[in-house]
Amino acid sequence: MARATMETADLRIALFSGNYNYVRDGANQALNRLAEYHLRQGAQVRVYAPVVASPAFEPTGELVGIRSIPIPSRSEYRVPLLLAGKAKRDLKAFAPNIVHVSSPDPVGHQAVTWARRRGLPVLASVHTRFETYLRYYNMAWGEPVIEAMLRRFYRRCDALVAPSESMAQLLREQRMNYDISIWSRGVDREIFHPGRRDREWRRAHGIADEDVAIGFLGRLVMEKGLDVFSDTLDDLRRRGVRYKALVIGEGPAREWFEARLPGGAFVGFQQGADLGRAVSCMDVLFNPSVTETFGNVTLEAMACGLPVVAAAATGSQSLVDNCKSGRLLPPGAIHQFAEALKAYIEDPALRAAHGKAGEARASEFSWDKINQAVADTYLRLIRQKPGAKA
Fold first, then answer.
1. What is the C-alpha to C-alpha distance for residues 3 and 332, in angstroms, rounded to an integer?
2. Which of 160, 171, 301, 374 has the most CB within a 10 Å radius?
């Protein structure tokens, strides 16, 4: 039974993830930071996720492998299939007092069932808008079906955490659950700040001091709005507006993107201080994606003092103050995006003012405070389920 005085150090967290460390993305880095924070507070954390021979980075905490298969069209990602054998025995022996699921995959469903049979509370974190992915494969007609499947999954959980209030409100409107709180995202101000800007680095990548660099940051996959990004820059070129494209990231669509952005500076995957330097070397971030639930890249750019032009979608709406720290425009609005970028390119004072406002907003996001909010949610759910048995 949960003790009335239960604290963060008393938590035994079973965390289920479809991708904890084999491909680096914003979602799994947030999960690793969450695990690190709880371990630092004295809690116990066990992670159940697919493993590969050469992961993108070392996992935080103890990682137990789950049976999985590659996704046919996106082989770098895997689908967890079965919670059985060694993993299931390990889960029983670990005896968690809270189960956290971060992906609505088959093992996520099985973990929820396992917890419900034992009267254990389940928290689900929402990291991406899976239903929107179909738009990029000419299957938008299937969105209501995916939404219904997600609703069934999330309603079996005791509560959800979303990374922004705009995403939480969308989940409420979609009737995914009625207990939804915020697990925001933080930014490392030692890595992301305007002082990282490096003119020599820019010059080395073909960006002259007088060039205005329009930046893209993220995995190079079509779901990130690469078509909208390139179509918008085509619009600028037709208007005779001078710019330089600076692309940070890797992914299966890189060759396509390079062909669409001739003369662009593609600097590949960056991390740590190198990433902070690369982002600071942009002059404006253009984020046309509608799939993010928070927008880590938006926050990182703001911390570097950059104005942001973004789609008015869940990822950026809670971060960008329209016409004060950037522009929020309708998704896919090529001409409006081009107008906003043109204004920043031609008005250095506007760039500087909106960048400064964005940096002030980014200073509000502390990782420890944000992750403690998840711990508080764990503790609340445990208190609400007296008599849970492992």
1. 51
2. 301
User: Which amino acid is residue 51, in one-letter code?
Assistant: V
Backbone angles phi, psi at 305, to 5 degrees: 80, 30
- Residue extent(s) of CATH 3.40.50.2000 domains in the chain: 8-186+367-383, 194-362
Residue 168: CB atoms within 10 A of its CB come to 23
3-state secondary structure of 208: coil
pLDDT digit string, tens, across residues 198-217: 999 999 999 999 999 999 99
Can you tell me whether residue 351 is helix, strand or coil?
helix
- With tokens 């907003």, the residue in question is 361
CA distances from 331 to 186, 224, 276, 309, 334 (A): 25, 12, 27, 11, 8
Task: Sheet with 244-248: list strands edge to edge.
Answer: 265-266, 244-248, 213-217, 284-287, 308-311, 326-329
Report yes or no on whether pTM surpasses 0.85. no
CATH of domain 8-186+367-383: 3.40.50.2000
Backbone angles phi, psi at 51, to 5 degrees: -125, 155
How many residues are there in the chain?
Answer: 390
Burial 179-211, CB ≥16 within 10 A → b, else e? ebebbbbbbbeebbbeebbeeebbeeeebeeeb
For 144-183, how does the pLDDT look when each residue is reduced to its tens digit (9 = 90+)? Answer: 788 889 999 999 999 999 988 888 898 999 999 999 999 9
